[in-house]
Amino acid sequence: MIEFTLWDILRNLLLATRWTVLLSLVSFIGGGAVGLGLLFLRISKRKSLRALAKYYIELFQGTPLLMQLFIAFFGLGLFGIDVPAWLAAGLALILWTAAFLAEIWRGCVEAVAKGQWEASASLGMGRLQQMRYVILPQALRVAVPPTVGFSVQVVKGTALTSIIGFVELSKAGTVVTNATFQPFTVYGLVALIYFALCWPLSKSSQILERKLNVAHRNH
User: Fold this and answer.
1) Can you give the CATH number for the domain in which 211 is found?
2) What are the DSSP calls for 139-189, one per residue?
3) For residue range 93-143, what is the model confidence (pLDDT) as tens digits?
4) How far apart are the first and last CA of the chain?
5) Nearest to 156 by CA among 184, 188, 197
6) Which stretches make up the ABC transmembrane type-1 domain (predicted)?
7) Can you tell me the distance from the alpha carbon of 102 to that of 167, in angstroms, rounded to the nearest whole number?
8) Domain that holds residue 95
9) Cβ–Cβ contacts within 10 Å for residue 1, how many?
């Protein structure tokens, strides 16, 4: 029987952590891009576009991420399309992240005083110019803390991708446990690594919220 040292266990978990970090970054960046598009649809003057974005957001917020992962991985397989686990995981998390970020940002845009819209419109700005030069810069101040805070949920959401065979940190924990028969040690280390990833993000969100609130009051 092969003996596994603590370093052997930790090294294997850290190797898998790379994929957790990479998947989190891809999901957050991709979700941010899609979410920005949804935001513009959500605040559009056209009712049909607002309804489309609203139904998308409600669909992805109202269904479990686990189910979305299953559909992305197994659903396309019903049509003869072979989807790799990493592609299904990335696609599902991007679409899921986009729904939440779009709604977070919509709330931040709506927090900007309506007078700002009216003032920029009186200067002859179009809708996109209003958003780019007047509304988004102000909404950004409000949006940063909740956006950073939501990134913690994205990191933790990657753990569910193990169910479709994507080998990230939690999946690696199961594999290493089966090889070492040391579940307490392995999952204890897994928990510590997740904490090391998420705690700085949570703390950053709190610090940013305090700083931006103070800056806003001083202003």
Assistant:
1) 1.10.3720.10
2) HHHHHHHHHHHHHHHHHHHGGGGGGGT--SHHHHHHHHHHHH--HHHHHHH
3) 999 999 999 999 999 999 888 888 888 888 888 878 888 888 888 888 889
4) 67
5) 197
6) 17-205
7) 29
8) 6-218
9) 4
